[in-house]
């Protein structure tokens, strides 16, 4: 009896277990002649398989196939847990342990990796390495198009799509496309109604964590940024800086197509759609698309019959 199919298949090929083919150099034995022929090349130094790309020679065809992946970039061994791919099987096997070992720690509660700066503990070393960047300010991943830096590679990849305008993640409900899996996940909550982030003070719920954090400032009355011109207060520095441009008249966001300038980045993004023809807001009832969300909201009333004014 066998618990692994490959062992069973191997046994069927040689049920007696005999190894009739022996090496005259080191007396090692083999079940099939082809294995002996392959082995003899260790002693003769023969390397009959050459790479057409770089001319490097190999004594086994399987070694040549593995080597060629350097040139092709092929990664045929993919992880079923995180879809990460590898050129060699043994690299995948090593990687798989990164899922099983940390997973066991989720049951035991063990967090063996500790930050020397703040003492925070982590289950995985990779999580500690990522966390330490918050102390060092290190941003090793840079965009080749605009030079913007990122702490994590998976943050750089969606950013690159802002240049290529690629949106590979589409919603199965309405067909709207997104540049990252995260943005699609957030969007899906508009269909499911899921609001996983709730305020402990008033029980109000939110679809994204950032909205909850912003809401919490209502309860803490954290209004750190005050405008010296009109006295208006803001909880976020970015909102405060954006507001100040109303007084200064500064328009720092310019369109590369026509040179028109805007005080807000969101205004520039909306304007650029007049050049690209992009209409990201689609009606789930009739499929009609719009450049701005406000236009979609007005259109939806034609289906609901709502007359707000």
Task: Itemize the secondary structure elements and their pairings.
Elements: H1 5-13, E1 21-22, E2 29-30, H2 33-44, E3 49-50, E4 57-58, H3 61-72, E5 77-78, E6 85-86, H4 89-108, E7 113-114, E8 121-122, H5 125-136, E9 141-142, E10 149-150, H6 153-164, E11 169-170, E12 177-178, H7 181-192, E13 197-198, E14 205-206, H8 209-220, E15 225-226, E16 233-234, H9 237-248, E17 253-254, E18 261-262, H10 265-276, E19 281-282, E20 289-290, H11 293-304
Antiparallel strand pairs: 1-2, 3-4, 5-6, 7-8, 9-10, 11-12, 13-14, 15-16, 17-18, 19-20
Essential attributes:
309 residues, alpha+beta, two-stranded antiparallel sheet, 44% helix, elongated
Taking Cα atoms only, what radius of gyration do you get, to the nearest Å? Answer: 30 Å
Biggest β-sheet: count, sense, barrel? 2 strands, antiparallel
- How many DSSP-defined strands? 20
Instruction: Count every helix, treating DSSP H or I runs of 4 or more residues as helices.
Output: 11
Separation of the first and last Cα atoms: 79 Å
Oligomeric state of the chains present here: single chain
Polypeptide structure, described:
0% of the residues are buried. The chain is built from eleven helices and 20 strands. It starts with a helix and ends in a 5-residue tail after the last helix. The protein has 309 residues and is an alpha+beta fold. The strands form ten sheets. It has a two-stranded antiparallel ribbon. A two-stranded antiparallel ribbon has the order 3-4. Strands 5-6 form a two-stranded antiparallel sheet.
């Amino acid at each position: 009896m066998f618990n692994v199919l490959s062992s069973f298949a191997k046994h069927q090929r040689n049920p007696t277990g005999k190894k009739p083919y022996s090496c005259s150099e080191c007396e090692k034995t083999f079940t099939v002649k082809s294995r002996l022929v392959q082995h003899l090349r260790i002693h003769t130094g023969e390397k009959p398989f050459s790479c057409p790309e770089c001319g490097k020679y190999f004594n086994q065809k399987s070694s040549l196939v593995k080597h060629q992946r350097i040139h092709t970039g092929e990664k045929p061994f993919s992880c079923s847990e995180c879809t990460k791919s590898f050129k060699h099987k043994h690299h995948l096997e090593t990687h798989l342990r990164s899922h099983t070992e940390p997973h066991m720690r989720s049951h035991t509660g063990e967090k063996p990796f500790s930050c020397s700066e703040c003492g925070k503990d982590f289950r995985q070393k990779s999580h500690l390495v990522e966390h330490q960047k918050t102390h060092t300010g290190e941003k090793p991943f840079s965009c080749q198009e605009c030079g913007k830096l990122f702490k994590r590679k998976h943050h750089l990849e969606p950013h690159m799509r802002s240049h290529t305008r690629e949106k590979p993640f589409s919603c199965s409900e309405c067909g709207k496309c997104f540049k990252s899996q995260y943005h699609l996940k957030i969007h899906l909550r508009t269909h499911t109604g899921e609001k996983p982030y709730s305020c402990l003070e008033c029980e109000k719920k939110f679809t994204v964590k950032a909205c909850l954090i912003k809401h919490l400032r209502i309860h803490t009355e954290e209004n750190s940024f005050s405008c010296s011109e009109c006295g208006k207060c803001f909880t976020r520095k970015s909102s405060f800086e954006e507001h100040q441009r109303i007084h200064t008249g500064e328009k720092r966001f310019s369109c590369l197509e026509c040179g028109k300038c805007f005080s807000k980045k969101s205004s520039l993004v909306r304007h650029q759609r007049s050049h690209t023809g992009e209409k990201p807001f689609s009606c789930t009832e009739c499929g009609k698309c719009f450049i701005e969300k406000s236009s979609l909201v007005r259109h939806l009333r034609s289906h609901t019959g709502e007359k707000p004014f």
